[in-house]
Structures are given as C-alpha cells and as structure tokens.
C-alpha cells in the first residue's frame, strides 16, 4: 500500500495558472482526530482508507504534512455576493492540495476547508467549526446519492482547538473535499479584472482541457466553453428544483465551471413546496429563494459571459452579440431539462406532451404547498390506485382531485416513479438533530445512521419511517446561519 507521504499529486492548476493563486501552508492542527472518513470515495480515488487513518494520513487531511508531490495553494477569485462585486475574495480559509488522477482516469482536486488564514482571509479567522463541516459532508454526499453533480466529501478532521463563533466557542475542524475542479465563475471574474488577456486565455484553456476538451477543436473554443457551462448549469439547476434543494448563497464565487454544486453553507431542502422558500438568515430580500434559483443562475452566467468577452471577438460589440446569443439559450435549456425531469418524476412516457399537466401541477403545488418530497413519492401509490396517501398531504384534499384525475388518465408507471422520486432526503430537522448530537455530545451514531439512510434515497425500508417524515406542524421555522 502507498504510504500517505508517497501519494502522487499532479498540479496542473499551479503549472498553468500563475497569478491565480498564492502558495500557502496550512495552520497547525494541535490534536487532529478523524471524525468521518468516506471509505467508498477513498477507494474511488485510489486511496487506501487505512493509510488515511495513520498519523501521516491525518497530516495530509489537515494539510500539515503533505506529500512532496503536492503544492498547497490558496486560489484567487472575485465574485458578486448578493449582487455586489468584490474584486478579491479567494480561499480565505482553504487550500488546494493538488489533483489526484484516480483509477477511473478522472482528475479531481483535493481541497481542504478550515486550514487557517491565507492572504485572502480579510477579517476572517481562517478556521471552520465542526458543525458546518459535518453539514457540508452530509448534504454533499446526499446530493451525490441523489444523482446531482456535486463536490464530494472525503473526510472531516477535528483539529483539537476551538474557534469562536456568535454562539460561543465551537470545536474546530477541516473538511477534505474533492471536486472535478474548483474553477468558479468568480475565478474568471478575477482573471478578467487583471486586464491581462493572456491570464484569462490561460484560464479558459485550462478549463477547456479539464472539463470540455472537445471545445478545443472548434472555430470559437471560448464561445463553445461558455455554451457548455450554460448547458451544464441549466441541467444542474433543474435537478436542484426537482429535489427541492435551496442552495442559499448562489454568489458567483459559489458557481462552478464544471456544473457541480459547490459550497454548502446555508443550504436546505424544502419541506413544504414553496417557490418563495428562503432559509438563510442573511438572505433578507429572498434573492436566493427556491423559485429564484434559475433566474439567479442565468444572472451569474451573464457575469461569466462578461468575463469572457475579451476572448470572444476583437470587436466588443461583436463579442457581446455572440455572448448574448449563448446566454439566451439558458432559458430554453433550463425549461427543457426541468420539464423533462418532472415528466419522468410523474411516471409519464418519453414523447408524451406533459406541458398542460405540468403547468397545472405548478399552480397546484404553489397554492397548496404540500410536502415536496412526499408529494412525488406518494404519487406512485396513486398511480397504483390508492390516492389516500397523497391526498393526505393537502389541507383540503379536494383541491388535488382534478389534477390527480387528469394525470392518472395519462397512465403513469408507478415502478418507474419509485426509481426517481426519493423517499429520504436530508431534511433540515434530521440534519440539525444529528449534528447536535455529534457536536454537543460527541455522539456520532445519529449522524452515521443518517448518512447510511441518505446513501440509498430511493429504497424504502421498514423501520426508517421517521427519516421520511417532515418536521411536523409544531416545529419552529427552520433557519440556516452563514456563520460557517
Ligand atoms: P463562502 O460564503 O463560504 O463561500 O465564503 C466567501 C468568502 O469568505 C471566501 O473568500 C471565503 O474564503 C471567505 N471566508 C469564509 N469564512 C472565512 C473564515 N472563517 N476565514 C477567512 N475567510 C473566510
Ligand atoms: Mg464560497
């Protein structure tokens, strides 16, 4: 077995993109303790979980003793946060360790969050509390099991020190995560703002090589890159909408070029279906509400297109014309992915014109606000002839009857529905209670259970009923805090 110090990292980001990072070392972790290790992911990466558990393995996972092949850097990026542009964000408390080329041939970044202050830290302490790092682990792994492109979580390591947050001292931790890259819309904004077209071109070439190599042979590779990212994001946001995921902080620095979901902060899953649902305490205006996500994604992609303009044509008007045309394709792409996904969730065959059924459904759900996850899951019972369970989700069940009749007349396939409509999602109250036990009492068992349930979201299992239930009418409204 390869010792932790012998793991071979590649560094194409560092090699190609001088000017877009600062070499930096992780802060010491006085008493590192492995809290969670994703053994399946370790295997996929070609890493031996037993090696990651050794003191040298913990040196790697905390960034305090990385192999010689690795070069730890803080990545630079800019970004629009809640619509306001910040020219210099960057990894304030994170480091890229390097890239692993796994046995499956895929290149993935290993990235550490909570590794100490960097030159991009501004006022922050560079640290991360255990609770939010466990939260990112649970939700990103749940997203992966739901089939949504996402960064993945390899490990959470407690550092042995405390970090100060609003609620008082909390145990400090790092999250080791993987991603097909950490290139963000904000990375391109940063590169464009240098005013050096060569930096921007190197970044775009790197992104093409990594994510969309077939763009390289086309007449307009950078316009083609823009198109691919628009398409990947349209598909991603449609998936979020299908499962009721609210990202909560869709700033341009939290949107990837790869089309993977990234940076799980104040995110949440819908209980009641509500286009206006907002869970983040800092999102006062509801900018990142559930129903606003497609529009925000398009707004962010417009910022990406702006950053690319110098590469699209020598004449700026021409560049704007080209970019606008691609950007306008977002709506069609998104709507097609959204409607096709809902058609599948409703068990209707390919080629079936589901538009009228979907339009009426959108109105019904927005007005009556049944539990999002259970609504789709229980529809399969209705397709089998028992409408009782789905009707029970409505305050006034008769409001659903006309829609149920018209949908059933289309002959939905109940078994196909069970394969695509999850029964278990990381419901906010379940996640909070499991994290509470882990952080306050050091009891990891509830969290391990939850992870295990969420790993098989479509498989209904006896004895797991409580994992499928909403919080209940007496539960206080759920709010997430950005104090991560
Ligand atoms: P986020 O909201 O987590 O996506 O982070 C936005 C920006 O704030 C990024 O530049 C982060 O690196 C930075 N940041 C967040 N928390 C901290 C912290 N505790 N210390 C330093 N920088 C931070
Ligand atoms: Mg971020």
From TrEMBL:
Instruction: Give the organism the record lists.
Output: Pseudonocardia parietis
- Where, by residue number, does Mg(2+) bind? 254, 263
Cofactor needs: Mg(2+); Mn(2+)
User: What EC identifiers does the entry list?
Assistant: 2.7.7.-, 2.7.7.108
Top EC class, one word: transferase
> What does this protein's UniProt record list under function?
Nucleotidyltransferase involved in the post-translational modification of proteins. It can catalyze the addition of adenosine monophosphate (AMP) or uridine monophosphate (UMP) to a protein, resulting in modifications known as AMPylation and UMPylation.
Q: Which UniProt keywords apply?
A: ATP-binding, Magnesium, Manganese, Metal-binding, Nucleotide-binding, Nucleotidyltransferase, Transferase
| Taxonomy, superkingdom | Bacteria
Q: Does the keyword Nucleus apply?
A: no
Is Nucleotide-binding included in the keywords of this UniProt record? yes
- Positions binding ATP in this chain are 90, 92-93, 113, 125-126, 177, 184, 263
- Check the UniProt entry and state the signal peptide residues, or none: none
The active site consists of 253
Encoded by which gene? ydiU
The record's InterPro entries line, in alphabetical order, gives: SelO
UniProt record similarity statement:
Belongs to the SELO family.
Q: What is this protein called?
A: Protein nucleotidyltransferase YdiU
> Which reaction(s) are listed as its catalytic activity?
L-threonyl-[protein] + ATP = 3-O-(5'-adenylyl)-L-threonyl-[protein] + diphosphate; L-histidyl-[protein] + UTP = N(tele)-(5'-uridylyl)-L-histidyl-[protein] + diphosphate; L-tyrosyl-[protein] + UTP = O-(5'-uridylyl)-L-tyrosyl-[protein] + diphosphate; L-tyrosyl-[protein] + ATP = O-(5'-adenylyl)-L-tyrosyl-[protein] + diphosphate
């Amino acid at each position: 077995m390869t010792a932790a110090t012998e793991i071979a990292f590649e560094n194409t980001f560092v090699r190609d993109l001088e000017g877009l990072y600062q070499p930096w070392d992780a802060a010491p972790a006085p008493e590192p303790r492995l809290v969670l290790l994703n053994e399946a992911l370790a295997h996929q990466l070609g890493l031996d979980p037993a090696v990651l558990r050794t003191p040298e393995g913990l040196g790697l996972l905390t960034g305090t003793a990385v192999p010689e092949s690795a070069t730890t850097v803080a990545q630079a990026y800019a970004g629009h946060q809640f619509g306001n542009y910040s020219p210099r964000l960057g990894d304030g408390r994170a480091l890229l360790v390097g890239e692993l080329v796994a046995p499956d041939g895929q290149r993935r970044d290993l990235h550490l969050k909570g590794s100490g202050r960097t030159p991009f830290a501004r006022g922050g302490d560079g640290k991360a509390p255990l609770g939010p790092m466990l939260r990112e682990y649970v939700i990103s792994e749940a997203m992966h099991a739901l089939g949504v492109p996402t960064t993945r979580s390899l490990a959470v390591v407690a550092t042995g020190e405390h970090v100060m947050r609003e609620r008082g001292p909390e145990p400090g931790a790092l999250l080791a995560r993987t991603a097909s890259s950490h290139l963000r819309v904000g990375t391109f904004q940063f590169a464009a703002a240098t005013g050096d077209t060569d930096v921007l071109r190197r970044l775009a070439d790197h992104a093409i090589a990594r994510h969309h190599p077939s763009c390289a042979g086309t007449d307009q590779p950078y316009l083609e890159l823009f198109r691919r990212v628009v398409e990947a994001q349209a598909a991603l946001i449609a998936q979020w909408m299908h499962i009721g995921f609210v990202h909560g902080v869709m700033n341009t620095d939290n949107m990837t070029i790869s089309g993977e979901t990234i940076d799980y902060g104040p995110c949440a899953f819908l209980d009641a279906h509500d286009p206006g649902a907002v869970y983040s305490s800092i999102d006062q205006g509801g900018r990142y509400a559930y129903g606003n996500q497609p529009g925000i994604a398009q707004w962010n992609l417009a910022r990406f297109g702006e950053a690319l303009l110098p590469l699209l044509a020598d004449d700026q008007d021409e560049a704007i014309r080209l970019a606008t045309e691609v950007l306008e394709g977002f709506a069609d792409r998104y709507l097609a992915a959204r409607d096709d996904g809902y058609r599948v969730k409703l068990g209707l065959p390919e080629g079936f014109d589901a538009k009228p059924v979907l339009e009426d459904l959108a109105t019904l759900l927005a007005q009556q606000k049944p539990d999002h996850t259970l609504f789709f899951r229980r529809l399969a019972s209705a397709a089998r002839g028992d409408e009782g369970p789905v009707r029970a989700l409505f305050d006034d069940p008769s409001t659903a009857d006309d829609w149920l009749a018209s949908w059933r007349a289309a002959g939905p396939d109940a078994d196909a529905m069970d394969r695509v409509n999850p029964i278990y999602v990381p419901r906010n109250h379940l996640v909070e209670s499991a994290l509470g036990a882990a952080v306050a009492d050091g009891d990891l068992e509830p969290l391990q259970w939850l992870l295990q349930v969420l790993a098989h979201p479509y498989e209904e299992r006896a004895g797991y009923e409580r994992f499928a239930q909403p919080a209940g009418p007496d539960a206080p409204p759920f709010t997430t805090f950005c104090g991560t």
